[in-house]
Design a protein that fits this description.
The structure holds 2 protein chains of 2 kinds. The longest helix of chain A is centred in the first third of the chain and has 24 residues, at 2-25. Chain A has helices at residues 2-25, 52-62, 78-88, 102-108, 116-121, 158-164, 169-174, 180-190, 206-209, 211-215, 231-245, 252-258, 262-267, 280-289, 331-342, 344-352, 362-368, 375-382, 396-412, 417-434, and strands at 40-47, 66-73, 94-97, 137-138, 141-142, 145-148, 152-157, 198-200, 220-221, 227-228, 271-277, 301-304, 315-316, 320-324, 387-388. In chain A, the strands form 5 sheets. Chain A has a 5-stranded mixed sheet. In chain A, strand 9 (220-221) and strand 10 (227-228) form a beta hairpin. Chain A folds into 2 domains: 38-149 and 319-360, 3-Layer(aba) Sandwich (D-Maltodextrin-Binding Protein, domain 2); 152-316 and 388-434, 3-Layer(aba) Sandwich (D-Maltodextrin-Binding Protein, domain 2). Chain A is globular and about 65 Å long. By secondary structure, chain A is α/β, with parallel strands linked by helices. In chain A, 46% of the residues lie in helices and 14% in strands. Chain B has a single domain (37-293), classed as MetI-like fold. Chain B starts with a helix and ends in a 6-residue tail after the last helix. In chain B, 73% of the residues lie in helices and 0% in strands. The chains are: A alpha/beta, B mainly alpha. Chains A and B meet through helix 1, helix 3, helix 4, helix 12 and helix 19 of A and helix 1, helix 12 and helix 13 of B.
């Protein structure tokens, strides 16, 4: 009896010690203690990018009330690491959202602080961000401040086109001929066919596999849970398969297996066209500074529209934004920072670093001049055209995976059109059925 | 007096056992209990969760993705375990005899098993790079076409199995070596006096006497096989890996993707619980069946 009591006592003592030790392992202990004087320090989670730290530094230098402590997370795994950090209770005041549709789950889980009261309290001017308001609104509440605009373009290597004696894509845009069929023709002509020169690169993200469908307003799953696909999805998959078979673009599996980054592919100087987002000029600026461009110079590249089969041209993309963490102890300071980044002052700094800011002002256009190679590119970069956010619903993150899984299966197998569409439809229905 | 001594003895024993028990409780048992509990909820990594009963289990059983990943895992386990143990046994038998540089070779073959899987995965991803990898460059120099090691659904899983076998067979080789060295040499001498050849000695002495080691190796290799993740993650594309066309999406990778990419942590917990049940069943069957083939007779 006494033995049992002793053991029980020991177990109880250890359990108490364990409970006392639990906070050591929780994220709560990482919470910074409030400073008694000096600027309020806020913790900001962002992914590693050569130019983002410049923007944060500009904010830190512009005022003395708030100091932003950047916590850099590797870009490739940012989404999963951010999820783990949030679930693990790691302390932060604000964070950048990389995969925009993750916002829905994060908001449902209570990690995101709605910003309406702060916007009202500080009389924050959102007029410049009106076009992106729907992209950062959930249940009627504004949950983020966009700092980077949303738009995909074709970036092209002028030198390769000149060497091949083929018109650059902007010529087809001016002639009204810049369709996806023309894109395929040009890509095929620009490629050497032996893997030495590529006509284009369609990177590995889901929305880049279905650009013609997104331009046709295909939602894949509508916000109320209905399947919405049509033949443009199939056309998109076929385009990739045909271009891969003709060796006009690098195979999807090779890009994934070799972890080739699209920027590196373009910097290498053997890629004619790259459909990618509005942040790419920032990467080009960085490459210019680091002398990473191979076989071509700063003046040898250009920007123009995406191809389009629609009567009214629309690009695609979702704005990049910052969220305020609901568990922040410095919400006013956090709002000051993310508000600045999305506001007119931040927009100029964002533009100087080669990004298309969410807010376009004359100062922004002026600042963008140094981030682009010529006036023609600036014209296309800043033109006002509709932008369609790809599958922008709470199902979005899983839709992306369904697209990639179906497309990969199609690329490596002989599947009929009905089989491809049936496969995708079945995956999408499964998402609807199993999303809580 | 006797009772006091007994109590003191129990206290000392408990003092030694409790630290490791607490470690086991906190880092193994508690997460297992939490996983099973979460599998009955719609937990998505946040502060709100609701009980959903067996919904996640039914969803998993009906999901082609889950069943597909289970099939990939089963193939991975069968082939990787078979090759690891056969190779380990052959090398152990060879290196148990008088071979030149025996100690060096034992260390050499064991070395990969103590290296990080991440480092090995990165190294092999470079070596097997479809364009500029040294293996394909070498093949090309011989006039042989470049092989799509990790970029074809037909060869990707086989490539992962090869790397796993390369990394792990040395570990099992050492276990077999220990087993071989515990066999009484008199048994071989008696067999030789009776005119037994190498094959007879192998079949009638070595293999039967190694059955306890073989049983341990099979059990641990199967469990490790079901838990494979790091090589798949590193060699097939990280967050976007598991391909081409899900050909290397093993169960743990599917769990990872559902939990951290799709925020379906309740569902992922159900998948993990099913895996736990599968492993428990396999291990129990193995344990029960050992009476029929494992010999614990003194050597």
């Amino acid at each position: 009896m006494r033995t049992r009591s002793l053991i029980a006592g020991l177990v109880a003592a250890m359990a108490i010690a364990l409970l006392a030790a639990v906070p050591v392992f929780s994220g709560g202990t990482q919470e910074p203690s409030a400073a008694t004087s000096g600027p309020t320090t806020i913790t900001f989670i962002m992914w590693q990018d050569p130019t983002y730290p410049n923007i944060v530094k500009a904010y830190n230098d512009s005022q003395s009330k708030v100091k932003v402590d950047m916590q850099l997370v590797t870009s490739a795994d940012y989404e999963t690491k951010l999820t783990t950090m949030l679930a693990g209770g790691v302390y932060m005041d604000a964070y950048m959202e990389k995969r925009q549709t993750d916002m829905f789950a994060q908001y449902a889980n209570g990690y995101i602080e709605p910003l309406d009261s702060y916007i009202k309290k500080y009389n924050y001017d959102t007029s410049g961000l009106e076009s992106y308001k729907s992209a950062v609104t959930i249940d009627g509440k504004i949950v983020a401040i966009p700092f980077r605009g949303a738009k995909y373009y074709i970036y092209y290597n002028k030198k390769m086109f000149a060497d091949a004696g083929i018109d650059t894509p902007d010529v087809y845009v001016k002639n009204g001929e810049w369709t996806w069929q023309k894109f395929m023709e040009v890509a095929e002509r620009m490629a050497s066919g032996d893997g030495q020169k590529w006509g284009a690169l369609l990177y590995t993200w889901g929305h880049l596999q279905v650009m013609p469908a997104i331009q046709d307003h295909v939602d894949f799953i509508t916000p109320d849970g209905k399947i919405d696909i049509n033949d443009t999805v199939l056309q998109s998959f076929k385009m990739r398969k045909e271009l891969e078979q003709k060796k006009a673009i690098m195979p999807y599996v090779d890009i994934v297996a070799t972890k080739l980054h699209y920027s590196q592919a373009f910097f290498n100087g053997n890629l004619a066209m790259l459909p990618i987002g509005e942040w790419f000029p920032g990467m080009m600026l960085d490459a210019k500074q680091k002398d990473s461009l191979k076989g071509f110079t700063w003046n040898d590249w250009g920007v123009t529209r995406l191809p389009s089969d629609q009567s009214t041209y629309a690009s695609l993309g979702a704005p990049t934004f910052n969220n305020m963490y609901s568990g922040s102890n410095n919400k006013d300071a956090a709002f000051d920072f993310i508000g600045w980044m999305g506001g007119p002052q931040g927009a100029v700094v964002v533009a100087k670093n080669g990004f298309l800011p969410a807010m376009i002002t004359p100062e922004v256009v002026s600042a963008l001049k140094s981030a682009l190679p010529d006036e023609e590119s600036l014209k296309y970069f800043t033109e006002k055209t509709p932008v369609i956010p790809p599958y922008y619903t709470r199902y979005g993150s899983r839709v992306e995976q369904a697209i990639l899984d179906t497309m990969q299966k199609y690329l490596v197998n002989d599947m009929t059109d009905d089989q491809v569409m049936g496969e995708l439809k079945s995956k999408l229905q499964d998402i609807v059925n199993t999303t809580n | 007096m006797a009772k006091t001594k007994s109590a003191q003895h129990a206290f000392i024993v408990a003092s030694f056992l409790l630290p490791s028990f607490i470690g086991f409780f906190v880092f193994v048992l508690l997460p297992v209990i939490a996983t099973v509990g979460l599998s009955f909820t719609n937990y998505s990594g946040g502060r709100t969760l609701h009980l959903v009963g067996l919904t996640n289990y039914f969803s998993a059983i009906r999901s082609s993705a889950f069943l597909g990943s289970l099939w990939v895992t089963a193939r991975f386990v069968v082939f990787s375990v078979a090759f690891q143990l056969v190779l380990a046994f052959i090398f152990a038998v060879m290196l148990n005899g008088r071979v030149f540089a025996r100690t060096f070779l034992r260390g050499l073959y064991f070395l990969p098993s103590i290296l990080s899987s991440i480092a090995i995965g990165l190294a092999f991803a470079l070596i097997l790079n479809p364009k500029q990898g040294p293996v394909n460059m070498f093949l090309q120099s011989l006039g042989i076409a470049k092989q799509p090691w990790l970029t074809s659904p037909k060869s990707a899983l086989g490539t992962l199995i090869f790397v796993t076998v390369w990394q792990s067979f040395g570990y099992y080789m050492v276990l077999f070596l220990a087993g071989l060295q515990s066999i009484n040499p008199n048994l071989y001498e008696c067999a030789e006096l009776d005119g037994a050849g190498l094959l007879r000695k192998l079949l009638s002495i070595t293999i039967p006497m190694l059955t306890p080691t073989t049983f341990f190796c099979i059990t641990t290799a199967i469990i490790k096989g079901f838990q494979v993740f790091d090589l798949v993650y590193i060699m097939t594309g990280g967050q976007q890996g598991g391909g081409p066309a899900r050909s290397t999406t093993v169960l743990i990778y599917d769990i990872y993707r559902n939990a951290f990419s799709s925020f379906r942590m309740g569902y992922a917990s159900a998948e993990a619980t099913i895996l736990l049940i599968v492993l428990l069943v396999i291990t129990t069957v193995q344990y029960r069946s050992q009476k029929g083939w494992v010999s614990y007779e003194a050597t």
